Amino acid sequence: MDKNFWKPIIGLEIHIELKTKSKMFCGCSADYFGKPPNTLTCPVCLGLPGALPVPNKKAIQQTIILGLALNCKISQMSKFDRKNYFYPDLPKGYQISQYDLPLAVKGELKFKVQSAKCKVRIRRVHLEEDTAKMTHLGNFTLIDFNRSGVPLVEIVTEPDFESSSQIEEFLKYLQRLVRWLGISQADMEKGQMRCEPTVNLEVIKEGRTYYTPLVELKNINSFRFVRKAIDWEIQRQLEEFKKTERVKEKGNKTTRGWDEKTGTTVLQREKEEASDYRYFPEPDIPPLTKLKVTRLPDGQESKKLKVNLPELPNQTEARFVKEYGISEYNARILTEEKKIADYFEEAVGAAKGTLEPTFIANIIINKRVDTNKVSPADLVKTLVKQQKITKIAGSDLEKIILEVLSQNQKAVEDYKKGKTNALQFLIGQVMAKTKGQANLEELKLKLPKLVK
Ligand code: ZN
Ligand code: MN
Fold first, then answer.
1. Interior angle at CA 277, CA 234 and CA 56, nearest 5
2. What one-character DSSP code corresponds to residue 76?
3. CB-based contacts of 121: which residues, under 8 Å, 6+ apart?
4. Cys-Cys crosslink for 24: which of 113, 141, 151, 225, Cβ 3.0 to 4.6 Å?
5. What pLDDT, in 10s, does the model give residues 318-343?
6. Ligand nearest to the CA of 48
7. Which residue in 450, 405, 445, 397 sits closest to 429, CA to CA?
8. How far is the CA of 257 from the centre of ligand 2 (A)?
9. Cα–ligand 1 centroid distance for 176 (angstroms)
10. Cα gap 155→197, rounded to integer Å
11. Domain segments of the chain as ranges
12. Ligand positioned closest to the Cα atom of 51
């Protein structure tokens, strides 16, 4: 079967734990990682009868901010619902979640995969509570309720992905976004961000289109496993289709778990349909429009909130390239964390034009400046001093570079043809001419520009 005649269709369900002080429906601390088991609990998050949940205002606000950052519409009417299922990690017998009126719907996110533009539609963003954590030890299962009731955002995308690399880039961007907004650390290995891709294939054979059965993948706790699990599952479905020509049945979804030991996905269970959860409105929490403390923003207020959102990481990244002329690669690194992006811009401001922004960017990235210890202003002071005292820089350096270039036409031509060692040669010539006194950082930056 030719690759041209089939393509993967992948959608994502992502759960992200919010970094609030307290849990979703009680006053217990939500900062549970590494704490002694079952020390952060109360009747509400233990699911004891009669305990009443009170929604966490901060968690609702953070979910609204995330919804806006994902270009969603914020619902003006929202409520919590009970999702009923029976499992020991949920002693109430249900999870408080959101069913038909999620906090945010119909968004989209644009991102790049190796400079190719992708767009993914966001179906919904809703808020729910995390469950207790179970640890299986041989014949025993241990249960820790510290995680029970931690605020959990669920993001559901439309099935717009076609490859595991798109998924990986999307998840990395989402992680960067929630960290940037300060709402989660979203560390996959710590379980703060979990994703469940739903995978099937569209196959065109002899002019007819087939869809293979839907499979939801679980147990994925790193970016690397996301790629491996999806790639393996795509191949498995392709092989299965070749053998059986089995196609998707309505409402039927199978769950398979990623097994790192064997590098395969393993059948877990046939999926219940949504109706099996017997969703119904949570009677102990009034609809959010009726709650004073958690009043939802109306259309006007949503617009205002959106305007007041901080610049998002991809916007900052693009602006750094445009405004400061730094490379896309460096812009990406500088916008990995908001703290670093802000640091860079403060340093550029402090330099008041005496240092090239590209130079400052290179120093921050390559010299691994300790941004906690050195202030942007101090960094600039040190750099300016270094340039003045010991090194040939600025227009003096440019003059020497131009001399060296005109005396080494062969190397210049080689460099233009893409031979990178010619660049090293030219840098060496300038260093020789200046008896090692040229400012190397500046030289490395300026020389390639002056070649053109
Ligand atoms: Zn509690
Ligand atoms: Mn969920």
1. 100
2. S
3. 106, 107, 108, 157, 158, 160
4. 151
5. 999 999 888 888 999 999 999 999 99
6. 1
7. 405
8. 17
9. 29
10. 12
11. 3-305, 313-450
12. 1
The bound ligand whose nearest atom lies closest to the alpha carbon of 13 is 2
Instruction: Using the mean position of ligand 1's atoms as its centre, give its distance from the Cα of residue 151 in Å.
Output: 12
Ligand in closest contact with the CA of 41: 1
pLDDT in tens, 144-183: 999 999 999 999 999 999 999 999 999 999 999 999 999 9
Q: How far is the CA of 15 from the centre of ligand 2 (A)?
A: 7
Ligand in closest contact with the CA of 54: 1
Q: Kindly tell me if the per-residue pLDDT of 388 is higher than 70.
A: no
DSSP structure string for 144-183: ETTSTT-EEEEEEE-S-B-SHHHHHHHHHHHHHHHHHTTS
Distance 321 CA to ligand 1 centre (A): 47
Give me the pLDDT at residue 100, please.
95
How many A from CA of 111 to the centre of ligand 2? 24
Counting ligands in written order, which one lies closest to the CA of residue 99?
2
Contacts of 31-38 with C-beta under 8 Å, sequence gap 24+, read: 32/146, 32/147, 32/150, 33/190, 35/146, 37/142, 37/144, 37/145, 37/146, 38/144, 38/145, 38/146
Give the tokens for residue 144. 């820790």
Rounded Cα distance between 230 and 255, Å, is 13
Q: Say if residues 39 and 61 touch (Cβ distance below 8 Å).
A: no
